[in-house]
Amino acid sequence: MPFELKDVRALAQLAREAGQIILHYREQHREGRTLGLEALNLEIKHDGSPVTLADIASQEHILEGIEQLGLYQPVVAEEATAPDVSTLDGFYLIDPLDGTKAFVDGGDDFTVNIGFIHHGRPVMGVLHSPVLNETYYTDGTCAYYLSPSGEESVIEARRADPEGVDVITNRTEDWSGHLKNYLAQHKVRSTERLSSAFKLGLVAHGKFDLYPRFGPTSEWDIAAGDAILRAAGGSVKTLDGNDLAYGKPRFLNPAFIARGLTSSSPLEGEVATT
Description:
The protein has helices at residues 5-31, 53-68, 100-104, 178-183, 198-204, 219-231, and strands at residues 43-44, 50-51, 75-77, 90-98, 111-118, 121-129, 134-138, 143-146, 152-155, 165-169, 188-193, 210-213, 217-218, 235-238, 252-253, 256-259. The protein is of the alpha+beta class. The protein has two domains: 5-155, Fructose-1,6-Bisphosphatase, subunit A, domain 1 (Fructose-1,6-Bisphosphatase, Chain A, domain 1); 165-259, D-Maltodextrin-Binding Protein, domain 2 (3-Layer(aba) Sandwich). The strands form five sheets. It has a seven-stranded mixed sheet. The longest helix is centred in the N-terminal third of the chain and has 27 residues, at 5-31. The N and C termini lie far apart (40 Å).
């Protein structure tokens, strides 16, 4: 299903609206802090991850909005029962609140993710940060950034500097094993930690060179940002050098390396070791 830019802009607006819903729940939680996590109706899912009222409300708004826009296709969403996608040409991958743990803990680095998969590849993506009120999106041809003031600009990933790379990682990534050995292969100029898929948007925007991920992720965590990064000239590849594929069993991802534009050195052709 090809997406016109006007449709993606409409989906970006939908993500921004969902972000406002999430912030409303966060404000309610802050005002009722004496109630603790009960104010968020926090539950723990079978995989150990949390889900809140904000997750559910954001997802409901997105799904209703997609249907009202006339853009409905099968949906795989974190807080919904997944359909069988093995026979589908295309489907949405949606995470209505990516970074729920950070959200519950009072952090700011959570996002709304809306991606679309066509024949196993991410071809459309919207990535919105409610706190920053910044949005990245792509129609599959160009990658765009929407500022808090509403100014839209085309973005491109940057080419890594051979003298040193800037790395962004997940807050929960284990620095003692895979990541430590992987980064030892590079001249690392700086490192930063962040929750949520916003890391992919920052790489697409040329703010960082590398985002290595060895910890567990699901497809709805990555699809939107992957589409944006690819459109910006970067890539998300597994450790064997293949593009990250979608529609896998249980929608679980292997380890991957997201990066901006590459030169012959120092980023191409490496394989992470334990």
